[in-house]
Amino acid sequence: PLCSNNNPYASFGATLARDEEQNLWSTPHDVTHTEADDDRVLFNMIVGRSQLDKDSEEWQKLNYDIYTLRQTRKEVRSRWKHILEDLGFQKEADSLLSVTKLSIISDSQNMSKARDILLKLSEETNIFPTSWELSERYLFVVDRLIALDAADEFFKLASMLYPKRAGVERADE
After folding, report:
1. Of 62, 88, 171, 173, which has the fewest Cβ atoms less than 10 A away?
2. Residue 122 · residue 132 · CB < 8 Å
3. Predicted confidence band at 31 (pLDDT cuts at 50, 70, 90)?
4. Comparing C-alpha atoms, which of 131, 123, 140 is closest to residue 71?
5. Residue 61 predicted with pLDDT over 80
6. Sign of CA dihedral 143, 145, 151, 154
7. 43, 41, 121: which is closest to 76 by C-alpha?
8. Quick one: which of 143, 164, 168, 170 has its CA closest to 154?
9. What Å distances lie between residue 107 and 142, 146, 147, CA to CA?
10. What confidence score (pLDDT) does residue 85 get?
11. Which domain holds residue 124?
12. pLDDT tens digits for 110-140?
């Protein structure tokens, strides 16, 4: 039985590689992963690359752009996760950052406060790269932080770890 073809885990590594190639943001095999604007941009880049000859200069440029976008997204997510873990959400960090089409805002009155905090994070910290367009995904995360009464502490810690000053990468480095 250990070597049978019925092993459900046999393709696990291939599944992870496929998820990475498709760049599923949150839930593996989530069919809604291309619903957000940044997901749609990446998806369109991947589709465009697949239609080009691998030896072409256009393919190489698009491949580099895809890699850069993925790395930027991973870096931003890593920053958010680092702050959440520092706030004591070690076990909950991944679920707090998991956003799909099925995610909802916990309280519609929190929406404007969540937008304000997200804008403040983008303007007053380096949690997002300068070229980053704000992702709706992080609006849901901020809403969750508001519901947990941790949004202000998150902003304070983000300001300390990722200050907006030029030449300063992180306070802990």
Report:
1. 173
2. yes
3. low
4. 131
5. yes
6. negative
7. 121
8. 143
9. 12, 10, 8
10. 96
11. 37-162
12. 888 999 999 999 999 999 988 777 777 898 8
- What separation, in Å, do the N-terminal and C-terminal C-alpha atoms of the chain show? 50
Asked whether residue 112 is domain-assigned, the answer is yes
| pLDDT, average across residues 136-162 | 93
- Averaged pLDDT for residues 81-109: 85
- The whole-angstrom separation of Cα 97 and Cα 130 is 21
Cα separation of 170 and 173, whole Å? 6
Nearest to 140 by CA among 66, 80, 86: 80
Extract the tokens encoding 34: 């291309």
Whether 52 is in a domain gets the answer: yes
Evaluate whether residue 132 is within a structural domain.
Answer: yes
For tokens 């590594």, name the residue: 13
- Tokens 């393919």 belong to 59
Residue 16 has pLDDT above 80, yes or no: no
63 within 8 A of 54, measured Cβ to Cβ: no
Q: What is the pLDDT of residue 134?
A: 76
Report if residue 169 sits inside a domain: no
Number of domains in the chain: 1
